[in-house]
Amino acid sequence: MIALSGLRFAYPGQDEILSGLDLKVAEGSLLVLVGANGTGKSTLLSLLAGLLTPTGGSLEAAGAVSPGQEADLRARCGLLLQDADLQILGATVGEDLRLGLDRRNPAAQDAARTMAQRLTLDALMDRPVQALSWGQKRRLCLAAVLLRAPRVLLFDEPMTGLDYPGIREMRALLKENKAAGLTQVVAAHDLEPLADICDALAVLHGGTVALHGPPEAVLSRMAGFDVRPPCSWRSSGTITPWEGDG
User: Fold this and answer.
1) pLDDT score, position 244
2) pLDDT tens by residue, 3-44
3) Does 157 or 161 have the greater pLDDT score?
4) 116-120 long-range contacts, Cβ below 8 Å, gap at least 24?
5) Can you say how many angstroms the Cα of residue 126 is from the centroid of all Cα atoms in its chain?
6) How do 56-61 and 152-156 pair as beta strands?
7) Among the listed residues 164, 145, 168, the one whose alpha carbon sits nearest the alpha carbon of residue 84
8) Residues 3, 6, 11, 16: is their CA dihedral positive or negative?
9) Cα angle for residues 159, 223, 193 (degrees, 5° grid)
10) Taking the chain, what is the end-to-end CA distance rounded to the nearest angstrom?
């Protein structure tokens, strides 16, 4: 589903932030990207979403290749930004969900209402977006992306700013998407609410993928990469279900 081959990227006038990434992500799996600030996690998501073009090497996601097919990537890969306010364009919840949909097409309008119900936004359709909580804004962004029926979902720090119920809700959505067969890549600093539900971890360091594999295999070698393992791993060397479930 996703394959990176010698992927390189540098912003104009700056040193390379990605300098030869090789990585594969299986279809329907959930990969968590971790690494210290500045290691290129958000940049990699933007490349996968077709918002940036590699300066070297190549990537393939959902059958689209970059360089060359960035428009196809944008159509097939949905990105949720860390700052929801940068992604919301409508004045109300309903207006934002319907942006880009054919207002004359009853099926499209029904799809928007169904998605609002799925993400518990149906009672908020007329609410101004500035009156939403941070968690509600995150759900609105996810609903808008899912309406495009992407084959790959990309999340940039989806737990940031969420309270305890919000984190539980986001975990439930990630698991629901996984059960539906969607391929997901999540960039995160905090592994605590993610380690037990992901299929693989990838540690970015020094412009490359320093570690990649099943969570247990990566966590056992993570010392020195400025990433904090989950508490259960530090205390007992195991990954236990997050305490928020149940």
Assistant:
1) 56
2) 999 999 999 999 999 999 999 999 999 999 999 999 999 999
3) 157
4) 116/143, 118/143, 119/143, 119/173
5) 27
6) unpaired
7) 145
8) positive
9) 20
10) 32
> Which of 20, 25, 12, 66 lies closest to 187, judged by CA?
25
Whether 8 contacts 175, CB under 8 Å: no
The string of pLDDT tens digits covering residues 196-245 is 999 999 999 999 999 999 999 999 999 889 999 998 898 898 998 887 56
- Residues 147 and 97: beta-carbon distance below 8 Å: yes
| Measured torsion, CA atoms of residues 113, 117, 123, 128, in degrees rounded to the nearest 10 | -60
φ/ψ of residue 36, rounded to 5: -65, 165
Domains of the chain: 2-84+152-236 (3.40.50.300)
- Determine contact, residues 141/75, Cβ cutoff 8 Å: no
Give the whole-angstrom CA distance, residue 184 versus residue 77: 10
At residue 246, what is the residue type? G
Contacts of 198 (CB under 8 A, 6+ apart): 30, 31, 32, 186, 215
pLDDT tens, residue by residue, 66-106: 999 999 999 999 999 999 999 999 999 999 998 878 778 88
